[in-house]
Every structure is written in structure tokens, then in C-alpha cells.
């Protein structure tokens, strides 16, 4: 269970890193949204799942199970709230008529 | 195992610094909103990790949940404000492509 939680946390940190690199390197607002909206959600869910597993490796007492359930509530909230926020910001950009980025050669 | 958590929290702080660059130098307002939303998600994870480092998990989990709620509400409020304003440039009306309309 300890090895599994370490694997989950390392994969979650990898997804956070890719989301941040996408936020820095992509050319447009919509593509940055595409990078962070999915990478942050999956990274947060994986790290919180790994921490909930680590919390249970001492034994299944009532306190440990309650703390793990609370961690999974945070993960469930992030899993619902983060795509909703992404959709709201993208809708705001679309209603403000922000033009999507186009490659220069293909438009010609 | 605690030193592993400390290293993970330090790396997430480094990623927060990288995301803060987009918040400072973002070309439009919406880029800054994305950056603050991503920083808030990372901060929630850092708070949960601090609960495990200090062995006060139940206390820090409540703080992390409150921070996630505040981050969500702030992002939704900013998005609704700019959506109702129909412009992301302050003081102007749709200045991104005003050559078309």
C-alpha cells in the first residue's frame, strides 16, 4: 500500500508538471485552458488518492478511515469544481469574442 | 516518508512560482484567471501535504476544503463578471476583433 501511494503521488506530480509547462508554453488562451483544465484535475485527484491510501497504511482505525473519507471528499469536490470553472472561463472568453489562435502558414 | 512529502511540497511550490509568471505576464485577463485557478488547486494539495508533515491531518484538511471552495467561488465570480461585461479589456468594448463588427 505504501508503494502504491508513492506511485500515485509521483504520477500526480508528473501531471501537475505537464499542466504547468502547458500553461507556460502554449500560444493561446484556449490552449492554455486545455492544458490546465485536465492536467490539474487529474494530478490533484491522483495525489489526494495516494495520500488517502498512505493514511490507511497504519491500520484501519475509525479516525484514519474518517480522515481518508475527508480527503476523498476534497478530491470529489475538485473533480466537480475544476471542470466547471474551466467551462465558465472558456464561456466568458467565447462571449467576449476572443479569437482562437491560428497557425500563420495554414491560414495563408 | 515525511521527507518525501516535504520534497513533493517544495516541488509544488516551485510549480506555483512557474505558474505565477503567467499570472504576472499574461497577455489578457483570462490568462491571469487561469493562472490563479491553477495556483489555488496546487495550494490545496500543499495544505493537505502540510497536514501530513505536521501530523495534524484533520485540522489541515478543513483548511484545504475551505481553500478549494474559495478558489472555486473566486474563479466563477471572475468568469461571470467578464462574461456579463462582454469585454476583457478594461474600458473598451470587444477590442480584440473590432475590425469585424
Tag the structure with descriptive keywords:
heterodimer, A: 108 residues, mainly alpha, 0% strand, elongated, B: 101 residues, 3 helices
Would you kindly provide a brief summary of this structure?
The complex is a heterodimer of chains A (108) and B (101). Chain A is mostly helical. Chain A contains four helices and no strands.
| β-sheet strand percentage of chain A | under 5%
The total count of strands of chain A amounts to 0
Global morphology of chain B: elongated
The structural class of chain A is mainly alpha
Helix and strand topology:
The complex is a heterodimer of chains A (108) and B (101).
Chain A: H1 2-25, H2 29-55, H3 62-95, H4 104-107
Helix pairs in contact in A: 1-2, 2-3
Chain B: H1 2-25, H2 29-53, H3 57-85
Structure report:
The complex is a heterodimer of chains A (108) and B (101). Chain A is mainly alpha-helical and 108 residues long. Chain A has one domain (2-107). In chain A, 82% of the residues lie in helices and 0% in strands. The longest helix of chain A is centred in the C-terminal third of the chain and has 34 residues, at 62-95. The radius of gyration of chain A is 18 Å and the shape is elongated. The termini of chain A are far apart. Chain B has one domain (2-85). Chain B is built from three helices and no strands. Chain B has helices spanning 2-25, 29-53, 57-85. The longest helix of chain B is centred in the last third of the chain and has 29 residues, at 57-85. Chains A and B meet through helix 1, helix 2 and helix 3 of A and helix 1, helix 2 and helix 3 of B.
Amino acid at each position: 500500500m505504501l508503494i502504491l501511494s508513492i506511485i500515485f503521488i509521483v504520477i500526480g506530480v508528473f501531471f501537475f508538471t505537464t499542466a504547468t509547462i502547458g500553461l507556460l508554453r502554449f500560444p493561446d488562451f484556449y490552449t492554455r485552458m486545455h492544458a490546465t483544465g485536465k492536467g490539474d484535475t487529474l494530478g490533484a485527484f491522483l495525489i489526494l488518492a495516494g495520500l488517502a491510501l498512505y493514511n490507511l497504511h497504519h491500520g484501519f482505525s475509525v479516525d484514519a478511515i474518517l480522515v481518508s473519507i475527508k480527503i476523498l471528499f476534497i478530491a470529489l469536490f475538485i473533480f466537480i469544481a475544476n471542470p466547471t470553472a474551466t467551462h465558465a472561463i472558456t464561456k466568458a472568453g467565447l462571449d467576449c469574442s476572443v479569437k482562437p489562435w491560428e497557425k500563420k502558414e495554414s491560414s495563408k | 516518508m515525511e521527507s518525501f512529502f516535504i520534497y513533493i511540497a517544495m516541488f509544488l511550490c516551485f510549480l506555483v512560482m512557474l505558474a505565477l509568471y503567467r499570472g504576472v505576464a499574461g497577455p489578457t485577463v483570462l490568462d491571469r484567471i487561469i493562472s490563479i485557478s491553477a495556483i489555488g488547486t496546487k495550494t490545496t494539495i500543499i495544505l493537505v501535504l502540510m497536514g501530513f508533515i505536521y501530523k495534524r491531518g484533520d485540522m489541515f484538511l478543513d483548511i484545504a476544503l475551505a481553500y478549494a471552495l474559495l478558489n472555486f467561488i473566486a474563479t466563477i465570480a471572475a468568469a461571470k463578471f467578464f462574461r456579463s461585461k462582454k469585454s476583457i479589456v478594461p474600458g473598451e468594448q470587444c477590442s480584440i476583433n473590432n475590425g469585424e463588427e
